[in-house]
């Protein structure tokens, strides 16, 4: 069955077609969820909510962009919605810092480690870093999505970068000290 | 070796091709939340069956009670007809309920199976990793043993096992879960998995709690989330609306949903003038009055009714009403003098002072009632001609329990609907009065009035929407009574008409 046919079947709430679409995209979208979530369980929850939305609203998908892009946006929005509803974005008072270029030695750091330190970031830093650095949203778009100013978005991104860098360097140091 | 790189690039490159497999439970949850909704829609018809079944059982019980109660008296044909109908209905209902039981059992079995499997795979995991999880594992095993003896506990254990399953599947991020045991065996050779393994264990304490709350909230929140994120989605595609707009939209749609849900229930206090009469000639009192003129009284009925909207068109209504009905038999001559009785000797009137369907009380022990139409005035002794003609008034009181369906024809400011259904009547008042020259004496009670009777109802309703919450109703209803009397003289088929006015309040 072609993707178009699958989508048509999904619009009729056909369980088989839904299962096929799920199998095709679950792992991609789940990696996305993992990046935007605090932990594994939350990511699974997020994925579940995202797919329920995708299948209930698939009739609104107009085949203009790619299905994957559409599904990714829904997944990201589901993640954002989670934090919006628990009021993560209410923090107003914080010192803004300038965007500084954070550079790092590229070494063999595992994907798991990188994912782990992303998940450990404070919620908003994690979201901003994900949106800007990994999913190519502009500060303006992020500001609108998270209901913050572009300044806050930039500042959050800079802080996220610094925290990440620190953790990577600390990790490397601990590894090299172990090996020595 | 290592060159300086912007941190964003590092993450981008490393995570570019990163994919991870969620546990099977995720798909199962997605599937059930998508197709449970479907089931809810289909449930409209089963509700009918259930209600119909409940009504049938109620009817059956009443009918049995009725037959037992009236055992010493002649059961008329109507009674039997009602009985057989009820029996067949209740049979159907019983079948329904046994089916349900069967399906429940199947579900339960499958749960058990699943939990067994989980325990097994847990054991395998334990053996392979030989970590310090034996304690937990053995407690799980114990619990599943208990499960076999105490079905109540099985659901709890199933939850636990579910958690285990999640944990287990997390170990298998790069594999599908079809062959759990194989995967577990693979764990030792797969560094990625074993790393995950240790991670998952460290999260053990957090996950079960999280899952519990998640599963609780899942059903309630999924709808809202769906709405929310879809609004978000549209917004991004069109890039026309701001987030605030979308949130506002979300809120309003949620509110609308709530309103629709909340307004399913209606409560309607009502009051109605009711007019009692009969189709066909006959008398509920005695043979001799069959040809007498009779008059139905206009009385009041009042009560309260609740209704539940199944959908926009159909509502189910049930309620409790107090109904008083009155019926007067005119042209009745009553006398108490013994001399007068003897004077009647010449007339061939079957009046041994008894009215066949009335149990006479002490007030009227010596009174005789005869129909003025049963003899020619010219042939009777003078004394009877001088007697004032009176009437026999019957007063019946019932507690009415209607169960009706309302179908909306017009749903505007002024609405129109059609109502059909049936009522069960419990007799709570049964009096016969003799009325002569304005004097009203209680002479006894009808012995042919059943304690429980029924009616088939049909009506048209007109309502006026005062506000979103309040409606004024005007419902003329015709109620054809069934099984009200167990023995009447002639063809006496009672009905009553009521014009029910009420104020219905939505909530």
Task: Please describe the topology of this protein.
The complex is a heterodimer of chains A (180) and B (507).
Chain A: H1 3-11, H2 15-36, H3 40-56, H4 67-85, E1 103-105, H5 111-120, H6 123-134, H7 139-146, H8 150-179
Helix pairs in contact in A: 1-2, 2-3, 2-4, 3-4, 6-8, 7-8
Chain B: E1 4-6, H1 7-15, H2 24-42, H3 44-69, H4 77-129, H5 134-149, H6 151-170, H7 180-186, H8 191-202, H9 206-238, H10 243-262, E2 265-279, E3 282-283, E4 294-296, E5 298-309, E6 314-335, H11 338-343, E7 358-360, E8 368-371, H12 382-386, E9 390-410, E10 414-436, E11 439-446, E12 452-465, E13 470-482, E14 489-490, E15 493-506
Antiparallel strand pairs in B: 2-5, 2-15, 3-14, 4-6, 5-6, 6-8, 6-9, 7-11, 9-10, 10-11, 10-12, 12-13, 13-15
Give short descriptive properties of this protein:
heterodimer; A: 180 residues; mainly alpha; Rna Polymerase Sigma Factor, Chain: A; 8 helices; 2% strand; globular; B: 507 residues; alpha+beta; Porin; 3 domains; two-stranded antiparallel ribbon; transcription (chain A); sigma factor (chain A)
Structural overview:
Chain B: It comes from Aquaticitalea lipolytica. Chain B: This is Outer membrane protein beta-barrel domain-containing protein. The complex is a heterodimer of chains A (180) and B (507). Chain A is mainly α. In chain A, 71% of the residues lie in helices and 2% in strands. Chain A folds into 2 domains: 84 residues, Orthogonal Bundle (Rna Polymerase Sigma Factor, Chain: A); 89 residues, Arc Repressor Mutant, subunit A (Orthogonal Bundle), CATH 1.10.10.10. Chain A has 8 helices and 1 strand. Chain B has 3 domains: 185 residues, no CATH class; 34 residues, no CATH class; 243 residues, Porin. Helices cover 45% and strands 31% of the residues of chain B. Chain B is elongated and about 135 Å long. The chains are: A mainly alpha (180), B alpha+beta (507). β1 of chain A pairs antiparallel with β1 of chain B.
């Amino acid at each position: 069955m072609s993707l178009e046919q699958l989508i048509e079947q999904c619009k009729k709430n056909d369980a088989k077609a839904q299962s096929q679409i799920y199998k095709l995209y679950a792992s991609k979208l789940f990696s996305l969820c993992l990046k935007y979530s605090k932990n594994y369980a939350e990511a699974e929850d997020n994925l579940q909510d995202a797919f329920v939305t995708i299948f209930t609203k698939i009739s609104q998908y107009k085949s203009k962009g790619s299905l994957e892009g559409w599904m990714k946006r829904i997944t990201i929005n589901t993640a954002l919605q989670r934090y919006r509803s628990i009021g993560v974005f209410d923090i107003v008072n914080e010192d803004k810092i300038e965007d500084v270029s954070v550079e790092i030695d590229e070494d063999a750091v595992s994907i798991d480690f990188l994912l782990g330190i992303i998940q450990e970031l404070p919620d908003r830093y994690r979201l901003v870093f994900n949106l800007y650095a990994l999913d190519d949203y502009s500060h303006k778009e992020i500001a609108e999505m998270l209901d913050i100013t572009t300044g806050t978005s930039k500042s959050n991104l800079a802080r996220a970068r610094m925290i990440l860098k620190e953790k990577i360097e600390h990790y490397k140091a601990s590894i090299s000290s172990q090996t020595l | 070796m290592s060159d300086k790189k912007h941190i964003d690039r590092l993450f981008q490159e490393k995570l570019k091709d990163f994919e991870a497999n969620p546990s099977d439970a995720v798909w199962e949850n997605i599937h059930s939340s998508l197709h449970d909704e479907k089931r809810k829609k289909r449930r409209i018809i089963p509700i009918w069956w259930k209600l119909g079944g409940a009504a049938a059982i109620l009817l059956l019980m009443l009918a049995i009670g009725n037959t037992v109660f009236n055992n010493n008296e002649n059961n008329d044909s109507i009674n039997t007809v009602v009985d057989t109908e009820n029996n067949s209905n209740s049979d159907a209902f019983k079948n329904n309920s046994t089916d349900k039981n069967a399906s429940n059992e199947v579900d339960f079995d499958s749960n058990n199976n699943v939990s067994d499997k989980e325990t097994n795979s847990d054991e395998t995991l334990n053996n392979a990793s030989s970590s310090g999880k034996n304690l937990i594992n053995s407690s799980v095993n114990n619990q599943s043993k208990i499960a076999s003896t105490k079905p109540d506990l099985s659901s709890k254990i199933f939850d636990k096992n579910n958690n285990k399953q999640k944990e287990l599947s997390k170990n298998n991020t790069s594999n599908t879960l079809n062959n759990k045991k194989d995967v577990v065996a693979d764990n030792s050779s797969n560094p990625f998995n074993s790393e995950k393994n240790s991670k998952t264990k460290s999260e053990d304490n957090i996950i079960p709690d999280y899952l519990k709350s998640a599963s609780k909230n899942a059903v309630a929140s999924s709808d809202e989330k769906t709405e929310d994120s879809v609004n978000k989605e549209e917004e991004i595609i069109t890039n026309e609306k701001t987030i605030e707009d979308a949130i506002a939209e979300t809120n309003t749609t949620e509110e609308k949903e709530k309103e629709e849900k909340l307004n399913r229930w209606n409560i309607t206090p009502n009051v109605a003038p009711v007019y009692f009469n009969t189709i066909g000639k006959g008398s509920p009192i005695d043979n001799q009055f069959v040809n007498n003129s009779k008059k139905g009284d206009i009385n009041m009925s009042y009560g309260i009714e609740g209704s539940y909207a199944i959908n926009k068109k159909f509502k189910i209504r049930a309620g409790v009403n107090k109904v008083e009905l009155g019926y007067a038999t005119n042209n009745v001559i009553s006398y108490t003098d013994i001399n007068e009785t003897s004077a009647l000797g010449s007339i061939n009137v079957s009046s041994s002072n008894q009215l066949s369907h009335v149990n006479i009380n002490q007030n009227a022990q010596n009174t005789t009632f005869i129909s003025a139409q049963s003899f020619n005035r010219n042939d009777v002794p003078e004394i009877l001609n001088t007697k004032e003609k009176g009437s026999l008034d019957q007063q019946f009181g019932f507690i009415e329990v209607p169960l009706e369906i309302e179908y909306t024809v017009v749903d505007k400011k002024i609405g129109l609907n059609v109502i059909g259904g049936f009522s069960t009547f419990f007799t709570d008042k049964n009096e016969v009065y003799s009325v002569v020259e304005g004097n009203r004496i209680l002479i006894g009670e009808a012995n042919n009035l059943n304690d429980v009777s029924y009616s088939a109802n049909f009506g048209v309703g007109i309502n006026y929407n005062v506000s979103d919450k309040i409606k004024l109703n005007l419902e003329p209803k015709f109620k054809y009574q069934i099984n009200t009397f167990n023995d009447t003289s002639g063809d006496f088929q009672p009905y009553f008409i009521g014009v029910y006015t009420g104020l219905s309040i939505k909530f």
